[in-house]
Structure formats: C-alpha cells, structure tokens
Amino acid sequence: MNAYRRASRIVESLAVDVSDLVESNELRDIPGIGKGTASLIEEHLETGRMSVLEAERKTIPRGLIELLSIPGLGPKTIGLLWKELNVKSLAGLKRALRGGKILDLPGMGKKKVENIGSGIVAYESRSGRLTLGAVLPIAHDIVRALGELTDVREIELAGSVRRFRETIGDIDVLVASTRPEPVIRAFTELPSVEEVLAAGTTKASVRLGGALQVDLRVVKPASWGAALIYFTGSADHNVRLRGLAQELGMKLNEYALQKGERTVAARTEESVYRKLGLPFIPPELREDRGEVDAALAGELPELIELSDIRGDLHVHSDWSDGHATIEGMARAAKRRGYRYMSVNDHSRSLGIAHGLTPERLARQAEEIDEVNTRIKSFTVLKGTEVDILSDGSLDLPDDVLARLDVVVASIHSGFSQSSDRITGRMISAIENPNVDIIGHPTGRLLGTREPYAVDLDRVMEAAAEHGTALEINAYHERLDLCDVNARRAAELGVRVVISTDSHRSDDLESMELGVRTARRGWLRKSDVLNTLPLRSLLKTLHPA
Ligand code: DGT
Ligand code: CA
Ligand code: CA
Ligand code: ZN
C-alpha cells in the first residue's frame, strides 16, 4: 500500500499531465514509479477503473468504511457486527440496533449500544442534512408547543421543512405576534433545547440534541404573508418573485410588497402573490423549477393531495420481515380511510427477510381470503415484492406471479453492477407482463447509499411502453423515485404509484412523505394509480 501512496504523491507533484507521459511511454522512467504501478495508472486512464483496487474493495462492503466515521465505533466492533450480524452499512447498523440482536454479541452491553445510537445521531447531524421524515415530527412538536402561547397569533414552519425537501439543513419557524419577548423566551426554554446559539428581540436560534438547529423569527401580524414567503424560500424562488415585483414597478421584501412607500400587500401570502399577478404557489413547488412561469401562464398543476390516496400497494407482513399480521396492517390501513391494500412480502431469495416460496405464498393467499371475509368495505389484495435477480430473471415463476393482484418487482442485490447490466435487469422485469410496479427504482438510501448506476431514461421509456408503473417509495430514507425523477416519469407518460413499503402499522403514515414528494414532482391525482377506486385500479393493472 505504501508504494501506491508514494507513487500517488509523485504523480500529483508532476509538472506534466500523466496521460502525456503514458502516450510518450515515459511513465516507467519516473523514479519511484515501478512497472506494476505504471500499468495501474495506464489501466485507470483507459478504463476509468483499477481492477486491483476494485478487488480489494470487493472483499470489504463499501458501507463498512463509512461506519468508521461514527464516533465511538471502532474497527473491532464494526468487524464483529459484520461477521455476526451481517451489518454492512449505516442502514444495516440501524436495523441491527432496532432489532435488539446486537445485545447478544460478546462485550456488548446496554451502555455500549446506547453510545452507538448517540454516535449515529451525532454523525448524521454532523454530515449535514437530516431526512425530512426524521425532522418533521420534531418540527411539529415545536409548533404545537409554541402554538399554545397566548402571544402567538400565527405560527408556521418555513424554509425547506415547509417546502418538504427530502433533506433538511435546519428547521425554520415563523411566528406573528405583537409581543415577541415571551415567545422568544418560551422558545429558548423548550425542554428539547440543548444550547441557545443566539437570542435577540425578534429572532433566536437554538440547537437541539445531535446538532439540529432551529431558527425562530417573530414578525408583526401586518407583515405575516410577506415574511412567510420570504422565509419559506427557496432563495431562488424569492429571487424570481423580487424580479417580477421590479418589472411591475414594485419592491418585495420580508415586510411587504410596496409601491414607493405604499404597502400593496403583506398580510397574507395569497394577497402578495395576487398583487404580483400570480395564483398562490404551493410551497412544494417553490424551487424555481418553472413554477413562476407556469403560474403566470395559468398552468400550475392541481397537485395530488393525501386525501386522494385510496390504498397502499407495497406493504409487508409478518410472513416476511414485517412486524404485524396481515389483518393488523389491513385494519390500520382501513382506519386511514383506505379501501384497499396489497400484501407484498419478499420472495424466497431474500433469506434474511424470510422471503416466501410459492408454497408459502399459496398459504398466505388463504389467510388473505379469510381476512377479507372479516373486514368489511375493504379489500386486501394478493401481491409480492419479487426480487429481480442479478441476471434479470424474477425470483418467482410466471405462473405464480400471474395469479397475484399486485406484483412489485425490486432490486435488492448486485447494486454495484454496471449501468448496462442493472438497467437491463430492470427492463427485463418491466417487460414481464406479470410485473405491475417497479419498487424503489434507484435503490438510493438518503445519506447512506447512492442510487445504483441505472439509466432511468431507458427505464422510463420501457415503463411507458409496457404500462409498468414506477413506485415513489415513501419510506423516509428512500423517497425513491425522488421529486425530480417522479416529474420526469409523469411527463413521459409513465404510471406512478405512491407506496409506503410499510413493515409495521405506524409506517403507513409515511404516505404523507410520498405524497409531498409527488407534489414536489408536480404530480396530479390523475398521474397516480393508487388514487383510483379498486375496480378501475385492477382494470388498469390487468386489462382484459
Ligand atoms: P435548509 O435549511 O438548508 O434545508 O434550506 P432552507 O431553504 O430552509 O434555507 P435557510 O434555513 O437558510 O433559510 C430559510 C429561508 O429563508 C430560505 O429558503 C430563504 C430565506 N432566506 C434566508 N436567508 C436569506 C438570505 O440571506 N437571502 C434571501 N433572499 N433569503 C434568505
Ligand atoms: Ca432551513
Ligand atoms: Ca434557517
Ligand atoms: Zn424492497
């Protein structure tokens, strides 16, 4: 390894480009660069890869390297977790902590496990942005607590949380009040506050556990609308609005929309937008991705709403790696106002997730029939989340898949395959007439795993052609498709479903995150299949 390091320092200090030396065959003449190293450099220049490095990397899962950055977690423990519990990534470590098996490992006490937990929080907040799903409940708690104060006239989340960006830098809270002092004091004295970073007469910043920052602004009720636009952002959206104001001979700031000294609008967001010649623009669209021009042209989409969703098409049960019974999940789904839910447990090749064989799937179907006789005005559909194997074939035979109502096909292995191979795999699945939906199409995990090298343009083209839907997986670490990709899919005429991939009944709540992502992707109700009544849904999935 040291020879490589020395060579790399030498290459960096060269006055000429290495590729020139390779072409003129002079690379081997440089002192300190041996034959082996030279051929590595040549390989890298030609192919963009280094087989030796890749072979080394293959023996150690990539995600393990990241775990070294977690405070309080050393190589010895990481090795133990890998060997004993097959922990290969941050996501895997979190699962192991949740599952509790970690306590059975030698030398692993309750205290040590707690330390790992707080190390993860510290690491994640240090690495910058947290997921929206992790931040939202905290943000709502703050709004609820401050909302009870008599001096608070209006309170709203602002910033990226209100725009429902998939990751959040800090939480912004806006309050309208005529007496800011008691509001600021109550804010800095919230029980979850670990440190007061700044506290003035109209604004304050605090740090909660794990370095999550919250900014509070208190404004006069007369400026509420202008301030809410200003602090919701995005900064780029606001730049467009200010430009528009200027064209109209006005000025927009955090206090008001003004013509000379006269206030034209300020009290509500609607009034400010109206005086700019615009309809209200939903916060999810305020990213300067064409929303201002669309609004000017009267072409803003009527966005899908949570209440449009009639069912969930990706739910696990305790038949595979879920934690609730089919009936338990179904009753929870019905309580949400849904009319249907499909059970999509893993298929057999996912051993760690107790994937189902065709035989177990048949027995599960009997249980679903029974549950359906017990629950009124609700239908449990039979489904699977079938693995797309590394050669592109499916983990269950076609005649088994053909009997199911909702077949989700997903990739859970071979993440590091080349773009061509992984795209080919996905397209084979899309072309299979038994496959209804592709699950979590890019495989990314926010902050812990990059998308696989899939070529989404080709995937979407095939999906549009074959009528296979792409999923917006609403699990907070996935949000996959993301907003931008969901928008592209809809534009290309690809059917979209929003599903939670729930493993316990509480997970069904994450449907909101999926719908917010869809809204950020400009999706309408008509773009999303699980807004359809059951009969039309089944007809669409399985045209006679
Ligand atoms: P984040 O916190 O990184 O997830 O993203 P935001 O959008 O919440 O950004 P943040 O917290 O820095 O500011 C909240 C909003 O306040 C932002 O979307 C626009 C507005 N804002 C903050 N500082 C400035 C500024 O210096 N200029 C302008 N034009 N707007 C600002
Ligand atoms: Ca923010
Ligand atoms: Ca902020
Ligand atoms: Zn999956």
Distance between the termini: 62 Å
Strand order of the largest sheet: 11-12-13-14-15-16-17
Specify the number of helices: 23
β-strand percent reads 5-15%
- Distinct ligands: 2'-deoxyguanosine-5'-triphosphate, calcium ion, zinc ion
Number of domains: 5
Mean pLDDT: 91
Overall helicity: 40-55%
User: Which shape, going by the Cα principal axes?
Assistant: globular
Report the structural category.
alpha/beta
CATH class designation of the largest domain: Alpha Beta
Report the biggest beta sheet as strand number plus sense, adding barrel if it closes. 7 strands, parallel
What is the H level of CATH, i.e. the homologous superfamily of the largest domain? Answer: Metal-dependent hydrolases
Radius of gyration over C-alpha positions, nearest whole angstrom: 27 Å
Task: Outline the low-pLDDT stretches.
Answer: none
CATH architectural category of the largest domain: Alpha-Beta Barrel
